[in-house]
Write a structure and sequence with these properties.
About 25% of the residues lie in helices and about 35% in strands. The protein folds into two domains: about 230 residues, 3-Layer(aba) Sandwich (Rossmann fold), CATH 3.40.50; about 120 residues, Beta Barrel (OB fold (Dihydrolipoamide Acetyltransferase, E2P)), CATH 2.40.50. It contains eight helices and 20 strands. It starts with 5 loop residues before the first strand and ends with a strand. Bound molecules: adenosine-5'-diphosphate. The site of adenosine-5'-diphosphate has 11 residues, from β2 and α1.
Length: about 350
């Protein structure tokens, strides 16, 4: 999986704690200008991977290279990395300037160098006018920028971020996502961003590495991870989707759902054949939804609720089998109403099919 343009090379690393396999055979190459998200559920091994890259912990097996140099055993402070954590813990009784200077003071850098670096990072993060304020005099977003500034002030060649936005409310988080991506592109150093939040991973990163159970489950450009999940885990974890079970019909080209009276064509190029039991995933925004009165094919549902989500409507549906499904659609002129009978279907190209239980 290696390619010559890689700046960080994680080569087949494993980390075990006794019998716990926190990471198992993970390889990952990261390019110099890349924003990569490490995405996975809680306990999947993300923080372990970040700690190994930072040098706060050593792998049981495997090597880590920065810019062609083996750093596997190198002390953290010699790796040229910056870090930003979820608990950003600004010192409340110190000004922004003092907070930003702190990592450099710890290293006994000369005063002039500290001042120059603080000015530099304040410029990048638009903190110039806030340098003499205390954290309590800042908005949440400004505090977050100071935390980011502390990670960047030593001019690292790599920034590691561990769920830095987890404590922010949704609106601020979305603003910060755009800002952080902008800073990464401007600085031109790799950012490695650990998160369990797929929205963050999708909005910020160039590529996403999906970690599940200590293993690298998928790696690819964000759009590809979203549109073409390679495993059922990725299909379920990235984006919001619904799962159906079905089996391939004798013609080998179409599928019948197990629980519903609905058939649809297999996507072209499908590897499945007659009799195969399959799991079908459809993203909630890829459903087609039509009034039953208009006729056609699909799963018959009743609209239970219609939730306004900005420019979208989220339809909460109940099937005649009592299952709840969600369909997200742009607002339209004649929205479907609660209690209406509808047909739910999808374009074969918009579903992801895996062998049942894979
Ligand atoms: P994540 O960051 O994705 O939530 P972690 O990397 O923290 O996951 O943990 C991965 C697995 O390793 C978990 O099962 C966790 O309990 C285990 N683990 C992490 N650190 C230790 C440790 N110091 N000792 C024992 N087990 C650990």
């Amino acid at each position: 999986m290696s390619h010559s343009g890689s700046y960080i090379r994680i080569d087949n690393i494993s980390r075990r704690y006794g019998s716990v396999r926190a990471l198992e055979g993970v390889s990952l190459d990261i390019a110099k200008h890349e924003f990569i998200a490490i995405l996975g559920p809680s306990g999947s091994g993300k923080s372990t991977l970040l700690r190994l890259i930072a040098g706060l912990d050593q792998p049981t097996e495997g090597r880590i290279h920065f810019d062609g140099k083996d750093v596997t055993e190198l002390a953290p402070h010699k790796r040229g990395i910056g870090m930003v954590f979820q608990e950003f813990l600004l010192f409340p009784h110190r000004t922004v300037r003092e907070n930003l200077a702190f990592p450099l003071r710890m290293r006994n850098e000369p005063r002039a160098a500290i001042e120059e670096r603080v000015e530099w990072v304040a410029g990048i993060l638009s903190l110039n006018t806030l340098l003499d304020r205390y954290p309590s005099q800042l908005s949440g977003g400004q505090q977050q920028r100071v935390a980011l500034g502390r990670g960047l002030v030593s001019r690292p060649t790599l920034l590691l971020l561990d769920e830095p936005l987890a404590n922010l409310d949704r609106e601020l988080r979305q603003e910060m996502e755009i800002e952080i991506r902008h800073y990464q592109k401007r600085l031109g150093i790799p950012f490695i961003y650990v998160t369990h939040n797929q929205e963050e991973a999708l909005s910020m990163s160039d590529r996403i590495a999906v970690i599940n159970n200590g293993r690298l489950e998928a790696l690819g450009e964000r759009q590809a991870i979203y549109d073409h999940p390679e495993t059922p885990f990725v299909a379920r974890f990235v984006g919001k989707s619904s799962k159906f079970q079905g089996s391939v019909l004798p013609d080998g080209k179409s599928v019948r759902l197990t629980r519903y009276d609905h058939e649809f064509a297999l996507p072209t190029g499908s590897i499945f054949k007659y009799g195969d039991a399959i799991d079908i995933f459809v993203k909630n925004e890829r459903f087609d939804l039509d009034r039953k009165a208009n006729g056609g094919a699909g799963i018959t549902c009743t609209v239970i609720d219609v939730v306004l989500r900005g420019p979208f409507l989220e339809y909460v549906l109940e099937t005649d089998r009592g299952d709840t499904l969600i369909a997200v659609k742009p607002k339209r002129n004649e929205p479907l109403l609660a209690r209406e009978r509808v047909l739910l279907s999808w374009n074969p190209a918009d579903c992801h099919i895996f062998r049942a239980g894979a």
